[in-house]
Amino acid sequence: MTAEAIEIGPRAGASGDGDSPLRIALLTYKGNPFCGGQGVYVRHLSRELARLGHHVEVIGAQPYPVLDEGVPLTELASLDLYRQPDPFRTPRRGEYRDWIDGLEVATMWTGGFPEPLTFSLRARRHLRARRGEFDVVHDNQTLGYGLLGDLGAPLVTTIHHPITVDRQLELDAAADWKRRASVRRWYAFTRMQKRVARRLPSVLTVSGSSRQEITDHLGVRGDRIHVVHIGADTDLFSPDPSVAEVPGRIVTTSSADVPLKGLVHLVEALAKLRTENPDAHLVVVGKRAEDGPVAQLIERYGLADAVRFVKGITDAELVDLVRSAQIACVPSLYEGFSLPAAEAMATGTPLVATTGGAIPEVAGPDGETCLAVPPGDAEALAAALRRLLGDATLRAGLGAAGRARVLARFTWKQAAIGTAERYREAIAASPAPVRTRTS
After folding, report:
1. Backbone angles phi, psi at 385, to 5 degrees
2. Beta strands 225-227 and 281-285, pairing class
3. pTM of the entire structure?
4. Which of 67, 122, 125, 340 has the fewest CB atoms below 10 angstroms from its CB?
5. Consecutive H or E run containing 171
6. What residues contact residue 422 under an 8 Å CB cut-off, 6+ apart?
7. Cα–Cα distance for residue pair 163/299, rounded to 1 Å
8. Distance between CA atoms of residues 147 and 313, nearest Å
9. Residue range 246-269, pLDDT digits in tens
């Protein structure tokens, strides 16, 4: 489906939350479901909103989200400057369509990340051309200047966690002044996000920890921020005794060169662990970096045969990989929620996780639903992995308790119901709500 205006008719009957169905524009400036949580969020939330009877249309840019049947996608194309295998490419002259494209390229050329701003400008133009077709606009952490002002419908914004946290962690990990300067240029868009966030009437976030970070880092008033927990697809991520457990297997989801994800500490912990348990090995769901701290550690400790990276796998392959592991691990220094933790727990795979950010809100108490360790502590991580690999009874107990916790607290249906409630509050609070239904 293209970005041309689409005629959306009314939906009869009541939604699953007991009120009339809503017409929702769900915006996402990036939607890759295999790298980062934003694409996962858009896919599962849109599906569950549709199951409740709402009409939800996803409006997104490259990499386009993968959506479930019945959820339409409107492609609001960027110049896709970071696509593989040619990231940071210079577009051909014929690719330029307007001044927004020029702004996108110019920002990239100066070392910045343009997509939040340029997507917001394209989205504003698109939404204004379709005035009256939506009851609410839901922005998935674009936080661009283009989304301020009149969009033709009330705006609700999800902030998973402030990107300023990522920025600070990368600055702390920078080796020299050149790297720090590069990080500051790349994250220059966070200044815009701060200014936009302070002007938003309704902000959703995924955890109490993120709520506090949004107040502290972005200056958003607490009374404007509402926590709606997200969740796991508990039908897909479920136990299956027919999947054989692989002795010593530890699985994690991580971007190798992002300090926030703590993969360097897990690799160091693995090296310590293998001195006593040579079967211990790590499968990383993510892209292998050919250079950088993780690659250097793997070479230094001789772990080339003990660390395997996989990417681009199907949902079914991912679930079976997690099921096959004796331990799932979340070594992050910080998480705004941690979908990998919830998904692993939903399969009944026992979890070792740090206490970074919102992870304890998801993983639960140490020794009851997980083993918890301080972030950045490779020694503590190795000790927890060693303990769990050596105790089958503990693994079974933590796995069962973890799944029960997810079923009770973190499902996408619950997330959709809570999100729809916030939509209705935003519509009711709007000074001039746009409701143009026909009978």
Report:
1. -65, -45
2. unpaired
3. 0.82
4. 125
5. helix 163-173
6. 156, 202, 204, 226, 228
7. 31
8. 34
9. 999 999 998 667 788 999 999 999
